[in-house]
Fold these 3 entries.
Entry 1:
Amino acid sequence: MSATPGALVLHGLTGSPQGVAGLGAALAAAGFEVEMPLLPGHGTSPEDLAGCGWDDWSVAAESAYQRLAARSGPVVATGLSVGGALAASVAAGHPEVAALAVVNPLVDPPAEDFLSTLEAFLAAGERFLPGVGNDIADPDAVEVAYDRLPVAALLSLSRGLVGLRPRLGDVRCPVLILSSRHDNVVPSVSSDVVAGAVSGPVERVWLERSRHVATLDLEREELERRIVEFAVRAVAGSELSGAPQGQEQPGGDDAPRREQRERAGH
């Protein structure tokens, strides 16, 4: 390759880079320059997160991408949960992104009545909901995450997803979606939305033993292997002369829309 490839790795809402550190390390070991930012409002207190929202996280993801792109070759955007939505936003805004890999992404916009419910909570002075972290099957794994979810942050996220949804069609690079069968936080329909909306070729992997935080769960090594292999193929393909980004690359899936057929480990 003419330059070291880059990997943008984004954590989820209420979490931290600790939740995706293994993935970042696996990509670094494979020769990628890794950028793994701490999103605004995270790593301190739920009260800090209550003062942040979608625009803050989007700006942070964009800034991290710009830093990475300035010092690396082709960039792969990856993310867990809300990090997956932010990674998709980056890929939608940058056609030069080599590939997008998302793990249990949260992109499906909520219904209007859900937004109204959140607004009613805030009006009644209810600032926090129970935390959503640590949905993990592995009893020995622990995610560093807040124990409370700020209603204001969730409301801002929900509105941000409404804006993201029509932009998913601008994602023209290869896309890898990893979905847990037993996710107790984000329904798999959100992954279905990604698969059906993006314009690039899609591969989908089902994780049979993992829950929402699959990057820390029982199949984390398989997850890391899948993403690394996908990323290596994508950046190699993006540098081939005459192989435009967003089209099927050599070594990729020969059936771009087989998202419902591929299974983890097979």
Entry 2:
Amino acid sequence: MRRELKKRDIYLKKLIAFQDTEPVKVVTGIRRSGKSSLLRLMAQHLENSGIKTDQIIEMNFESYTYRSMTSDSFYEYVKERIIPGKRMYLFFDELQRIHRWEEAVNAFRVDFDCDIYITGSNAYLLSSEYSTYLSGRSVEIKILPLSFVEFLYFHGLEVQEIQSALGGDKKLILDKDGNQYSLREAFDSYVSFGGMPGIADVGLDQEKAMILLDGIYSTVVVRDILERERREGVRQIADPILLRKIILFLADSIGSTISVSSIGNVLTDEGILERTGKTGTPSAHTVQAYLNALLESFFFYEIKRFDIKGKEYLRTLGKYYIADIGLRNYLLGFRNRDSGHAFENIVYLELLRRGYDVAIGKVGRAEIDFVATKTHEKLYIQVTQSMLSESVRERELAPLMNIRDNHEKIILSLEPGFDSSYEGIKSINLIDWLLTAE
């Protein structure tokens, strides 16, 4: 008996929008972020819409059942289950484990009347080899760990508005037993435990959460980085100690400007990397290969810098954000540290969820945390812990005030201060912003 699935409507709606269209639907994201559950939710939607269960073929290639399957036997397995004259719905989970899977998927597209949905935990799934077969015939749905709103829902917490004793409305969090918590308490839990859906199964217990996050970390590192390279015959990522050092460095440096050479120099000073060549500099190619593997496994995201006045992306010095803030706490320890960068990380992921393209903004010598763009929309966003200090207000406002266009400018913080805007720049409570559905 399958357990009841929690809804992920933001992603399910995207899949439903592409239902019965030609493109292969490709769901990507870090392991354990909910890709398998999303496929099952889509299958349930089809069943509830009147599609017969024998028209739905579901295969999870993490299962031992398919451990020795080749692309040929994969094709034959599906072919035997195709019902002539019926539209079939094919769901393939973690498909990258099948060598030359793309040939079989392309054959299904050509040979059968079918609608195809696949998942993968590595961006290699959408590499040039894949696109050769399905160029222009696939659509990517990028899934992320839980948003703050989803975190509350998964943990059985509900936001309720009550009338404050001082007048006006006040938001509280209620659990299923009627216990009350402040919004800040719930947010602090989110910042500590992160948004991996599995945390909801073990509860907000630090020891259990650490065990779950350790399992996620190990699976990503082994299956999506070390094993993946061996499977492709490329032995660049062969040193688990070096890989962990780079992961720890990036996790400790989220939101900070980083170059490949700066990572290499730190690792060389620690004796992890050897200096190479006549100049005695650490190998940039080695560091870049490890960074690429971490980006491809969706463990980290790289964000480029954009010159707002020059209107061009800059090639140097980007920043990295981790896929889940709970994973960062697992790696570095559950203690209070650089909360400003942690909040930045949360805002960055939320902007991605809301469909924005995101860059760092450069205006003169100053920097804007995020420039978020959609088709007909642009936001300039600064993130800080508090706006109560005059010096902080000046620091956060100055870069935004140097931008001369009319696009919306926002500062997100836990303590926005008494003024809701400063010369047209909005000061918004970060938690309220996270709770605002788009």
Entry 3:
Amino acid sequence: MNKVILMGRLTRDPETRYTQTNNTLVSSFSLAVNRRFVRQGEERQADFINIVAWSKLGEFCSKYFKKGQQVGIIGRIQTRTWDDDQGTKHYVTEVVAEEAYFADSKRDGETSGSSFENTFGNTAPGSMGADFEVSSNDDLPF
């Protein structure tokens, strides 16, 4: 099983491009994910994880995610290699996003009538299932 769940802050705005072969949108960004434990007398450390999101999810990430924002990503680890113009082989390990969520707390100044997505997170269309719909905050079980 290859499943990754991450929560961290974007280190930069997502970078969007299109593939040469079939013009598919791909968005890439990096998450700073804090390590769970801190050694006494040391600062908290973070790992910087490269994320790639394709098609509709990539479009969502490029449109709504910004540097410094806390987000949650569910996906899978992928490794790939390529040769550059000088013939040097490059290796990269990255997370291919399958779901993306807002993870920041509700900001001051937002109205109390804000939507479920603004309060508890949002995903790419269909990632929670087509049956999932909340018409008002009164429908929430908590």
